[in-house]
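Listing 4. Sequential folding, example run.
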Amino acid sequence: MSGCLGGGTPSGGVIPDLAGATTADAIAVLQDTGFTHIRIQQKPSATVRPQAVITTDPPAHARVLYSQTVTVVVSSGPIQVR
């Protein structure tokens, strides 16, 4: 059945677990997996090193269409207090 997410059809796939990967590696993995709409969002984090992936939206292991936008949330490092 065309357009269905089940059974490994070409229209969708599973979001890989990218936590801790570099931004460049995360983009490469998503593109290699078949996702074409990738957005990067930076977020401060005291526990995740700068430029490392914190999470994705949709989350890891979610089944989604390849045409859906995947947001990769990347650490900008700890909040800088002035």
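-- end of first protein; second protein begins --
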Amino acid sequence: MTQQRPSLKLFCVVALGALALPGCAPSPVPPEQGFTPAASAVSAPPGAIGDRCWDKIETPALSPPQVRWIELVCPEDRTPEFVASLQRALAARGDYAGEITGTIGPQTEAAITRYQARIGTGGTALSTESAERLGLIPRKPTL
């Protein structure tokens, strides 16, 4: 049985309606808890499953401008054990040279960015594709 995460859109609508706030964004979690803020915190591609996290990469210099959505490993899934495994996996591939701390700091963020640039996924927040390739989460079945 899968646990449903509350919808951020519903929260924003309730907060906006009840408090008449000019905008709604989640409170950032300190970096030592392993969260990198991204556009995904408030948006998702059309037809996306509601309990997933996304990053939107826009390339306006191209004609026509390009938009690409990347599914991310959600902040609540980045436990200290997960992050320590991430750091070990990045170190094994030569992208991380820091201590295994279980927290995402500047060195881990830089290693994620380097690894994702090297494999062609891009972005600065950890994508599910990268986590799959690193062996941190199971691969999604292909149809």
